[in-house]
Hints:
Blueprint: H1 2-52, H2 54-66, H3 68-102, H4 115-118, H5 120-148, H6 158-165, H7 169-196, H8 204-232
Helix pairs in contact: 1-2, 1-3, 1-7, 1-8, 5-7, 7-8
Amino acid sequence: MLGLYTVILNHKLKLMTLTASSIGRKVAMALSGIFLVLFLTQHFSINLLSVFSESLFNEVSHFMGNNPLVQFVLQPVLIFGVLFHFIMGFILEFQNAKSRTVKYSNYKGSANASWMSRNMIYSGIVILSFLGLHFYDFWVPEMKYKYVEVLPLNPDRYFEELVHKFESPVRVGLYVLSFVFLSLHLLHGFSSSFQSVGVNNKYSKSIKTFTKAFSIIVPLGFVFIALFHHLNAF
Ligand code: HEM
């Protein structure tokens, strides 16, 4: 009898640890996602300046590109945040796939979850591919300029560099397509992140409305910036 109790207790403990760790991973995923949304907000605000004022955009970009706190503290934290979010995303997806085939015989796909929530991994992969192209376009040349070729500081170069990148219709097309996937990813991810960290109060409905609006407006804004510079190049 005692043996049976020990087996049941062990089994229960195992289940609790598993759940706690997968809940922990979901919370970590949500927190890193919210952190990336904060980055996205500041990135969007700075890029939007390029539409209104060339000199202001250059000034802010020069500050961001040369301030030691931004360069040597915030930038590594951001890169860590991006990697963390993607690696955790793949781990969670792998675990979910495993539990779908093994544990949940009543898993009915679309009956239990929205299309987007089941396909976060695919929109995530599109965004990851976009980031590869985006880093190649902006981040790599910037690192080369500053730290490899060590060219002279030129506070007026940022706007020109940005506009030049949006001349190619193929690149603009790829960017716009990626922003559509970014919107789909955020529509599920951003709104469910507050649930994952346990926010459940009288503001929950307003938070949901805000996150949904953000998920549409910000990617649309990025589309606008890309098209604006593309069309202005001719
Ligand atoms: C029209 C849209 C966009 C424009 C014009 C743009 C522009 C830029 C520029 C100019 C940089 C270089 C910053 C530097 O000097 O280091 C940059 C970096 C970066 N962008 Fe974007 N971006 C756009 C959209 C996005 C989106 C949608 C994301 C995320 C999904 C993103 C993520 C990043 C990241 C992670 C970096 C590296 C930041 C750093 O290391 O400081 N960008 N972007």
